[in-house]
Amino acid sequence: MLGPVETRSVSPVFVGRTDELDTLNDALARAAAAEPQALLLGGEAGVGKTRLVEEFATAATGRTAVVAVGGCVEIGADGLPFAPFSTALRALRDALPEEFAAAAAGQEEELARLLPDLGEAGAGRHDEQGMARLFELTARLLERVAAEHTVVLVLEDLHWSDASTRHLLAYLFRTLRAGRLLVLATYRSDDIHRRHPLRPLLAELDRLRTVRRLELARFTRDEACRQIAGILAAEPDPAQVDEIYERSDGNAFFIEELAVAAAEGNHTGLTDSLRDLLLVRVEALPESAQRVARIVAEGGSTVEYRLIAAVARLTEDDLIEALRAAVGANLLTVTRAGDGYRFRHSLVREAVADDLLPGERSRLNRRYAEALEADPALVPADARVMRLASYWYHAHDAAKALPAVLAAAVAARRRHAYTEQLGLLERAMELWDDAPHEVRSALRPVDYTEVYPPCGCDPATTPLRYLDLMAEAAVAGRFGGERERALKITKRALRLLEEDPDPLRAAWFWVQRSRLVQALARGDGWPELSTAQDLVRGLPPSEVHAEVLAVAANWSMQRRPGPEALAAAERAVEYARMVGARETELHARLTLGGLIVESGDPEAGLAQMHQVLRETRAEGIHHVEGRAYVNLPSALQSVGRDRETVPLLREGIEACRGYGLLDFGAWVWGNLSEALYSLGQWEEAAEAAAQAIRIGHSAKPRGAGAVRMAHLALARGDLAEAGRQLAAARTWYGTHDPMPQQLLPLARITLGVAAADGRIADARAALLPALDAGFPPGTHRYGWPLLLAAATAEADARTLPAARPGRAEILDRLSAAVRTLTTGVPLWHAYGQWTRAELLRAEGRDTAGTWSPVVTAFECLDRPYDLARVRHRLAGALLAEGGDDERDRAAELLRLAAAVAAHLGARPLADAVARLAQRARLTLNRAARQAPVDPAAALGLTSRERDVLGLVSAGRTNRQIAEELFISPKTASVHVSNILSKLGVSGRGEAAAVAHRLGLFPAGTLAAETPG
Question: β-pairing, 181-188 with 211-215?
């Protein structure tokens, strides 16, 4: 029997946390104004996170916000996939049923993976973007529900979160940009040790400027005093406050426990360990209540009443009395749904669970599993399989655990919880040898393994074999991004296949290994693909054979296009048709179309690719459709048909968004940025590139977006931004897999930044690897812009002394490279003419006759920036020849070029046009007369050269200049030589005189800079 309790375990007064509440309320106000908010709330166990969230949730509800709370669930040592999101979405659906139904309309089957209440999850497609598709649909669902209502989504206890929950949370924090939504996630900071899986996520979110992170501190002595007063309902004795505060160290939960213990006359807690203190309240309960507490502690973070009853095996009256005692002692509390119980604080649950004996723990897990097997309705359907697998595993019964774990792995895959699926399959491998043979011979058939051929005659009925299990695990690891674990599994599988050879299955594992090696930046994957091709050579046609050929053809298209790649693609199409592998056939045909375009027959290749797009749309094969929306516009761009690609790309963006194809969507955004840049729509191009970076799920499409941003920044003259984006692109691309479509654009931008900064040697260094490697067939679309940039840099540096060494050799090599590149369509024919004209300018041999046909060629193309650049060159050649007609024509060309440069914000081109007009004393327009050109820019000085000229004018030596600007004396000497050349003077004194005459430096500046 329990006597009356005169103290309260929880203070009715909310103490402190003013700053934190202000931050949360500010975030709520911003969310209500349609500015989505993301917050992380951390703090040690017992510090008061839950109480703060409850206070904030109450206040938010009072301000008409809808609050949906979900907590990460722990079952033994396991977490349920997506548990907090499932619970929170269920609460959101209950609160806003009509809005939720409208937001989920058409996507119920996919969203049922998160919220089974929506119906049966569809079979759908399982691939590396399956999880990303689900994430995108979830983000859109939340944005739609929060369009008219302020929604607060609270996700508690991230330290128990499964990997899928962490991935989804990271995606939401990174991508939410619309809706009146606030996402608040809490975690226990003292649990986040160096190897804790939440730690990398916290580090990633810290780098996002859109995420605010709060760390809840312990109470001060004054706050502890107010808390104790609230618990005791009286002013506490100061000495008692000092004693409790010192013992608790300001932890709110320990303050509560110590205050109650002191009030009840139990002073042992003040000297014993805090863990013992937590168990004091348990030990004061009747034996039946203690027994129930131990059962609940082992059952998970929350346990249903009916399941407790089945495990406790007490009469209903005795069970209710035991539970009432535990609730009355503030040990247990009723769950939010009212159908079960949980410990009031997880610290107490952990103390009780840790106090269990090893045999006692396994016995309780067995009872849980037996109860659940006897009556599966004891727990919600969406948690049943996972919990049964966990209970049997922790009961240490391999015969029961193996089939249960394998069933749970299938359930995890159906929810796109691939990381959890992998963990369960690894657990099955661990149990395999301990399970009796009769159990293994009655296992379920193989689940999802792409085109892997399962062992046995009939895959639908043959029990799972160990090699099949490894194939399932390899696919799950690849899909879930756990590539290191998947790679280890493929290596083990291939070792087994060395002992018991099976060429077809070995080839499949080698293809998996190739993909994983590429994804892990361990190589380009070709040796593995070559091995796979050797293994299938001579075997009858099969799905594996067709896939090997298709993957090899696609690899070659991206890295070594040519006749061999074309032949491989043709064979892949043929084999896929033979064995009815429709998706492989469509992939191979898409690759084949791209290779035909690159081989010089664009119309035939484009027709093939258009047909694939039509068929994939009609048949609903969205994965290939997404790839077609990337490759077909890219092929059109490769032949200069950018305007034609824009509506197709916008259509692709909508399709990829609708199907949740994030990476394909990112590639499409990057291609759209490139097309808009060519068409002179630079603001839209920048937005498209930013979208590619933002929504990209993997590194390479984000790298492509960064390349586009760098290219734009370079054209606008922002060298610092170009450098930053270039570095980001290099990081995302990595160095393990040198594809021309990545390396050549990177080299072009690197060269352009160096040339713009007057570093001609660095510009040449960026070019040489490409010249050494050559330009194989199909790389002309990336080769021509690089060669043009190099020829332009050499022409611009023609008069610089630093450019003379090695100049003739570079020009010879450029000329030789130009002769190797194809000019089969008007765009590349125009680029060829332009590049040859720049090479003539580099030798001082260009004339108006050189540039006139280049301008004519670009006037037929839809590329305003390129046209403006060549018009500027023609104007310069006309002015060099002299004559009134030539001057008039040059003036008109410069006006046109200036207008385009101003519209685009192409500052380097605008400055070049202005300098040429100034030298020729041409007035382009009234605005030009009112806005004088910067003399330093007009002379072609870079910002660094201007700094050096200032110090030269102040009488500094090269060594002094080097010390002041943190450069080497040799670099300072090069800058001085460049300045003398650009000013047309022979010495430092003359250079200083020119600087003084043009007023480059304010009066008094030089004197102030002179040491003394």
Answer: unpaired
Burial class (CB in 10 A: 0-12, 13-18, 19+), 392: buried
Question: In 264-303, which ranges are continuous DSSP H helix?
Answer: 274-283, 287-299
**Distance between CA atoms of residues 20 and 858, nearest Å:** 61
Model-level pTM? Answer: 0.74
Residue for token digits 């006037």? 859
Contact 296/343 with Cβ under 8 angstroms? yes
| Token output for 456 | 């046995």
Residue 29 has pLDDT above 60, yes or no: yes
At 886, list the tokens.
């030539």
**Contact predicate 214/42, CB 8 Å:** yes
DSSP-assigned states of every residue in 908-962:
HHHHHHHHHHHHHT----HHHHHSPPPHHHHTT--HHHHHHHHHHHTT--HHHHH
From residue 327, alpha-carbon distances to 275, 306, 333 in Å are 20, 17, 6
**Res. 823 pLDDT band, cuts 50 70 90:** confident
* 453-459 CB contacts, 8 Å cutoff, 24+ apart: 453/504, 453/505, 453/508, 453/542, 453/543, 453/544, 455/505
Cα–Cα distance, 882 to 344 (Å, whole number): 91
Alpha carbon 233 to its chain centroid, in Å, reads 52
| Band of residue 927 on the pLDDT scale cut at 50, 70, 90 | very low
Query: Strand, coil or helix: what is 66?
Result: strand
- Other Cβ atoms within 10 Å of 21 Cβ, number: 15
In terms of Cα–Cα distance, which of 88, 112, 131 is closest to 104? 112
Q: How far apart are CA 968 and CA 75, in angstroms?
A: 63
Q: How far apart are alpha carbons 418 and 730 in whole angstroms?
A: 29
883: left (phi > 0), else alpha (psi -120 to 50), else beta?
left
What is the enclosing helix (H) or strand (E) of 598? helix 582-598
Please, which pLDDT band fits residue 75 given cuts at 50, 70 and 90?
low
Q: What is residue 343's DSSP assignment?
A: E
Q: Return phi, psi of residue 285, to 5°.
A: -80, 160
3-state secondary structure 723-762: HHHHHHHHHHHCCCCCCHHHHHHHHHHHHHHHHHCCCHHH
List C-alpha distances in Å: 18 to 30, 44, 55.
Answer: 18, 18, 11
**Position 790 pLDDT exceeds 70:** yes
Q: d(Cα 538, Cα 61) in Å, to the nearest integer?
A: 69
The angle formed by the CA atoms of residues 232, 235 and 237, to the nearest 5 degrees, is 95
Cα separation, 937 vs 943, whole angstroms = 9
Contact 756, 778 (CB under 8 A): no
